[in-house]
Specification:
alpha/beta; Uracil-DNA Glycosylase, subunit E; 6 strands; 38% helix; globular
Length: 228
């Protein structure tokens, strides 16, 4: 008989306790101690972040890493920052979330048929994890995907997440002869999974108009179409 895999909840506790990358551990904890002036009275999370959402999700949304004063503060990915405002607004409009905003872990947000996670679990300096940090974190995404048995669509926010998704799918035995190029609206079939690409809803993209709400909504509409 095959051993039962730990649940997503058990896996989440393991992720939260991770200290594999000394540079990231030092940075996330420094940010949590020094704090930004706007949040000086808050207690920062300051630890790695697991994904969250519906354990039976068919849609997995994959980002790069927690924001230093977003998820690293609130304890939930894409929560408490402008990128999260864009993401959860789009998820809500597409019918995957019960509300359009997320400000903290206990704000009542619930995802339906969607799971949101990141390729790197700790907030990295300048939002740039090193290759060895990326690789050290990869098994956490592999483990989440193993437990999300109904996942049929992975929506990668940005090229870093696109590459991380391809590596994770390859680790699960699904590979392509030629690497598909990332782009907004890009689509590739990898085994039983459809990989979708979207520009990341970072301020750099949304403030400049490189990514607009209709563009993001179009990608989520395609995800909705694919999961049915």
């Amino acid at each position: 008989m095959r051993a039962r895999r730990p649940s997503l909840a058990t896996l989440a506790r393991e992720i939260v306790g991770c200290r594999r990358c000394p540079r990231l551990v030092a940075w996330r904890e420094e940010v949590a101690e020094v704090r930004r002036a706007a949040y000086r009275d808050e207690t920062y999370w300051g630890r790695p972040l697991p994904g969250f959402g519906d354990p039976r999700a068919r849609l997995v949304v994959l980002g790069l890493a927690p924001a230093a004063h977003g998820g690293n503060r609130t304890g939930r990915v894409f929560t408490g920052d402008r990128s999260g405002d864009w993401l959860y607004g789009a998820l809500h409009r597409a019918g995957f979330a019960n509300q359009p905003t997320s400000t903290g872990r206990d704000d009542g947000l619930a995802l339906d048929d969607a799971f949101v996670t990141v390729a790197v679990r700790c907030a990295p300096p300048e939002n740039k994890p090193a290759p060895d940090e990326r690789d050290a974190c990869a098994p956490w995404l592999d483990a989440e995907l193993d437990r999300l048995e109904r996942a049929r669509v992975v929506l990668a926010l940005g090229s870093f997440a696109w590459d991380a998704a391809l590596r994770a799918l390859r680790a699960r035995g699904y590979a392509l002869d030629k690497k598909p190029a990332f782009g907004h609206g890009a689509e590739a079939r990898v085994g039983p999974v459809t990989l979708l690409g979207s520009y990341h809803p970072s301020q750099q993209n949304t403030f400049t108009g490189r990514l607009t709400e209709p563009m993001l909504d179009a990608v989520f509409a395609r995800a909705r179409e694919l999961v049915g």
